[in-house]
């Protein structure tokens, strides 16, 4: 089973540096390989290793998009094993 870290970044309220810090924290603290996926409206400034995808238009606000993203990860990986705000680490 893959480990996936999922985050959501939209608007200019937070810079890409916050996503980079989260990615680097994962690299520093996880002993096995993982995918780092960010749903975003602007992926400029992301360091290598971060997979970015556009925020999907599912007809609701961004809070619900975060829930949708977690559901998609759960569908692929068997469910989140950790969740905090807008991030999730999935896998063993």
Structural notes for this entry:
- The chain has two helices and five strands.
- It has one domain (4-90).
- The protein has a five-stranded mixed beta sheet with strand order 3-2-1-5-4, sandwiched between helices.
- A hairpin with a 2-residue loop joins strand 4 (80-84) and strand 5 (87-90).
- The termini are close together.
- It is of the alpha/beta class.
Q: Would you kindly provide a brief summary of this structure?
A:
With 92 residues, the protein is α/β, with parallel strands linked by helices. Helix content is 33%, strand content 28%.
In angstroms, what is the radius of gyration?
Answer: 12 Å
The sequence of SSEs as H and E is EHEEHEE
| Structural class designation | alpha/beta
The portion of residues forming beta strands comes to 25-35%
How many helix segments?
2
Topology:
Elements: E1 4-9, H1 16-29, E2 35-40, E3 50-54, H2 62-77, E4 80-84, E5 87-90
Parallel strand pairs: 1-2, 2-3
Antiparallel strand pairs: 1-5, 4-5
What labels would you give this structure?
single chain; 92 residues; five-stranded mixed sheet
